[in-house]
Automatic annotation (TrEMBL):
Residues 1-18 form the signal peptide. It comes from Leptinotarsa decemlineata. One of its GO terms (cellular component) is extracellular region. This is Yellow-c1. Its main location: secreted. Keywords: Secreted, Signal. Belongs to the major royal jelly protein family. Pfam families: MRJP.
Length: 409
């Protein structure tokens, strides 16, 4: 098992056995520049503005911890990056993946390479040593948005750092200017690498895109459960009040059943309800797009007030669903063997300062729960103080996180 940095701070989170490690923390992000001249040129041209780089997505593969930096604003140096986990720096520089060239915005008239990433929010490492990246192709989202390349699923071979495939979403997958694809989950096992499916929620267009790796094809699904709840779009995080209309966003896959299908648990960001559907429905294009399949989608229940969530992930060993809690400065858990109601939703981790806006979570092969917090509402609406810690990546063992909660079966 890989050794993580010895500097990691220990944060006690209420229950005696549960300890949350602060692995990395930054006031502002910096990058592993090829040389000083390269950095200075980007600073002079406005292509690197330190305060405009906000980390958002996280996942681990062996000794690499991948971290995304979406191009919310101009001045993002590289969107797809990793941190070597043997780093001894508590605020390490991000290393662009697969290299710098793939992350620099193309000049006018240039054709991007197959491995080029303009702006990505979430990514997923699968059990076949592949990295799936949901590339939005959209730069300067909060300023003067520019669609540099089509939304695409980009799949890397992590053993060679080469692109296996780049799949541009079809016109029928996209709902005009409303669509916004910020997440991706991958349905695959080590024995079914060539039969993988990816599920991509459209939080702005209120839909779900299914991609079949074997067929190299995709289709869009509509359902009322993908919409936001107008009663739960008013949010306050870190003292910042705002209103969002984000629809389906968080997705998590339960364990395979005897037929190889799974339960997909999903929710809109602006909602406190949790829903589910079997992947047997999603993988079948004719069934998934048939209006008569409406009742095959299920309401699991309500998590309670102020339980809006950006991301979720499922631990198969304990049968526990983890969900970020952006208004509660933490991460919740729920075991689907229990009815979904507020009394059965546990608080796995909580910290009023270090977990302000838990934007993403991931479980690695060692069953560590990784958490990225980034104060995003303040970044978007108010501005961050460059003299204080704004971004953190923390981790805790899954079993520790649920110990003493209602999530233990």
């Amino acid at each position: 098992m890989m050794k993580l940095p010895l500097f990691a701070a220990l944060i006690y989170i209420g229950r005696a056995a549960a300890v949350l490690e602060e692995v990395f923390a930054w006031k502002e992000l910096d990058f592993d520049w090829p040389n000083d001249e390269f950095k200075n040129d980007l600073v002079k041209s406005g292509e690197y503005v330190a305060g405009n780089n906000l980390p958002l997505g996280v996942d681990r593969w062996k000794d690499k911890l991948f971290v995304t930096v979406p191009r919310w604003k101009s001045g993002v140096a590289a969107s797809l990056n990793y941190i070597p986990l043997n780093s001894t720096d508590k605020s390490p520089k991000l290393v662009p993946y697969p290299d710098w060239k793939a992350n620099i915005l193309p000049k006018k008239g240039e054709t991007p390479e197959e491995n080029h990433i303009v702006s990505t929010f979430r990514l997923k490492v699968d059990s076949c040593d592949r990295l799936w990246v949901m590339e939005t192709g959209l730069a300067d989202i909060l300023g003067e948005p520019s669609q540099i390349s089509p939304p695409a699923i980009v799949i890397f071979d992590l053993k060679t750092d080469k692109v296996i495939r780049r799949y541009n979403l079809k016109g029928t997958d996209i709902k005009g200017d409303d669509s916004f694809f910020a997440n991706i989950v991958v349905d695959v096992t080590k024995d079914t690498c060539d039969k993988a499916f990816a599920y991509v929620p459209d939080l702005g267009g209120y839909g779900l895109v299914v991609y079949s790796f074997a067929d190299n094809n995709s289709w869009r699904i509509k359902h009322n459960y993908f919409y936001f709840d107008p009663l739960h779009g008013d949010l306050t995080v870190g003292g910042v009040n705002f209103q969002w209309t984000d629809g389906v966003f968080g997705l998590a896959l339960g364990p395979p059943n005897e037929n190889g299908f799974r339960t997909v648990y999903f929710h809109a960001l602006a909602s406190t309800n949790e829903f589910s559907v079997n992947t047997q429905v999603l993988r079948n294009e004719s069934l998934a797009t048939d209006p008569h399949s409406y009742e095959l989608f299920k309401l699991e229940g309500n998590k309670g007030e102020n339980t809006q969530s950006t991301a979720s992930v499922f631990d198969e060993k304990t049968n526990v669903l983890f969900l970020t809690q952006i208004q509660k400065d933490g991460v919740a858990c729920w075991n689907p063997r229990r009815k979904l109601e507020p009394a059965n939703v546990g608080i796995a981790v909580h910290h009023q300062e270090n977990l302000i806006f838990t934007n993403d979570i991931a479980i690695d092969s060692d069953r560590n729960l990784w958490i990225l917090s980034d104060k995003m509402p303040a970044f978007v609406y108010k501005g961050l103080d460059p003299l204080e810690i704004n971004y953190r990546i923390l981790k805790i063992g899954v079993d520790e996180a649920i110990n003493g909660t209602r999530c233990v079966a």
